[in-house]
Amino acid sequence: MSRKKIGLLVMAYGTPYKKEDIIPYYTAIRHGRKPSDKQIDNLARRYEAIGGVSPLARLTRDQADALAEQLNAAQVDYEFHAYLGLKYIHPFIEDAVTQMRSDGIEQAVSLALAPHYSRFSVQSYIDRAQAKARELGGITIASIKSWFDQPQFIHFWKQAVLRAFEDISESERNQTVVLFTAHSLPEKIIKNGDPYPEQIKETAEAIVHAAEIKHYAQAWQSAGKTPDPWLGPDVLDQIRALHKKEEYRHFIFCPIGFVAEHLEVLYDNDQECRALVESLGANYHRPQMPDTDPLFIDALSSAVLNVCRSHLFLAAK
Ligand code: FEC
After folding, report:
1. pLDDT tens, position by position, 96-137
2. Which of 66, 85, 226, 306 is at 20 to 30 A from 239, Cα to Cα?
3. Domain assignment of residue 202, yes or no
């Protein structure tokens, strides 16, 4: 019996492939408003500081391939075909849906490479995929809204944090704080009942519980520079406050809102946060990001299979 063909729409943020992509990419992030020369220079400088381009393009591709491979090895009911759909650079989400449709795919699952749901972030990926599917007709997409609570995801971070603790001498482990961070969003999302802050808190608490972490805190990073308020505390303020209060000797950074090493982690954490931590006389640690770790790919795979079992399987009956 031939396996049912399912489209696997892996949606992600995207990154400039080369220097010339920076302006169109940044303009897309700003919903079509061209950034000023100063903003462009600032962004180009940050990419330069992490080696010219971000490793995100390669990592996203590798994550999608690893996920399809894992899904096809894990079960016999479906044959998954992966399509990459990006938010701010080609191949765009709409391109991927169009390609699936012209490849004859009738049913698909979409998954955003971001663990937590916000109307502001993940819902916009979903809306774009669903709008294109409606426009084309003949294809239905079951969209996963969040997958932060997959046990393997928590397990991944538990192991990553424990490995970071191993680098710290036993006598100093009690003077160590684990800082969980995620991308800040405009504060107005809270008024609209967005689950994003709560899901991040739940993720941090699950890791704290699993790894039996004694000292921890949460903070927001990479906030936009706009006049309206963003979710806080900002990570840099949080570092200062923690240092002042407890004089921690070690800071372990867990950017749990992201799933790969990219600009926000390699620059905002590894350069900005590190510089501040070290200027305070403390030590900076940042565990390996999920990237293509088998535990992480397992977490994604189980989120996809869950939606297939519930949504697609029932719909097919
Ligand atoms: O190239 C790379 O390696 C990094 C790619 C990248 C990821 C990413 C993830 C998230 N962002 C989220 C929200 C916002 C909001 C604004 C915003 C701005 C930028 C800029 C760049 C950028 N983001 Fe991003 N983000 C990445 C890259 N992001 C570049 C523009 C310059 C700057 O501010 O640094 C503010 C937009 C505005 O001005 O109106 C809001 C969220 C995530 C995590 C969820 C997801 O991946 O979808 C939320 C990766």
Report:
1. 999 999 999 999 999 999 999 999 999 999 999 999 999 999
2. 226
3. yes
* Measured distance CA(199)–CA(209) in Å, rounded: 15
User: What is the DSSP track for 207-256?
Assistant: HHHHHT-SSEEEEEES---SSS-BSSSBHHHHHHHHHHHH--SEEEEE-T
Q: Alpha-carbon distance 203 to 259, whole Å? A: 13
Supply the CATH number for residue 211's domain: 3.40.50.1400
Kindly give the distance from the C-alpha atom of residue 249 to the centroid of ligand 1, in angstroms, as a whole number: 30
The atom of ligand 1 lying closest to the CA of 56 is: 3
Note whether residue 97 is domain-resident.
Answer: yes
- Give the distance (Å) from ligand 1 centre to CA of residue 264: 8
Q: Is 116 in the pocket of ligand 1 (CB under 6 A)?
A: no
Answer yes or no: is pLDDT of 58 > 50.
yes
Output the six-digit token pair for 109. Answer: 């699952």
Structure tokens at 266: 């390699």
Measured from the CB, is residue 221 less than 6 Å from ligand 1? no
> For residue 254, what are the domain limits?
151-285
Query: Does the beta carbon of 230 lie inside 6 Å of ligand 1?
Result: no
Q: Does pTM top 0.90 for this prediction?
A: yes
